Amino acid sequence: MNWDAALRLATFTLLILIFSASGRTRRKADRTGKDEISFAKEGRFIYNLRVSSALVFYLSLLAWLIYPPLIAWASVPVPLPLRLAGFALAAAMAPLLLWMLRSLGDNITPTVVVRQDHQLVTHGPYKWIRHPLYTFGSTFFIGVSIAAQSLLMLAAGLAALVSLILRTRIEEEKLEERFGDAYREYKARTGQFLPKLLNRRSRG
Fold this sequence. Notes:
Blueprint: H1 3-33, H2 44-66, H3 80-104, H4 132-147, H5 151-179, H6 181-189, H7 196-203
Helix pairs in contact: 1-3, 2-5, 3-4, 4-5, 5-6
């Protein structure tokens, strides 16, 4: 069995599922909200880091899916069981990402801007963590990087994660400005990227 081809096909199927759901959610939010979305408020450095790292990641991913020799120079040998575990990790994130998209609904934005009709979402995965998209999405792409045995994809994915972590502070400031005490109370009882209980255990 050609495991590399099987992993590429399975990964492509996951990507179609996730990005089609994400695209539908984002298009509906844009049609419903009709807000003017500006990326300026997240800062030039964060924006440039996020966009450039995402571009490198997706181009590398596309190369692996279509013609792996194109990025063979950035690959390292990974045992098949570990590659399969990486894919399993990515696959486990797919239903969580769909759950997150359904919970967030029309409140989704591509940047730190809060929509005019934005509601404070505290159900679904948001009941426990404030930024499930970053948690689930980053875990998904780390799993895909392991399955693709690509150091380039892993490095680009981690750089994108750093940009999102930096952006989170600005995003939460905007939400706190909008929702005031309601958001501060929500922030106090939830974890940023992991559930509060896990955060406490890790500190202990």
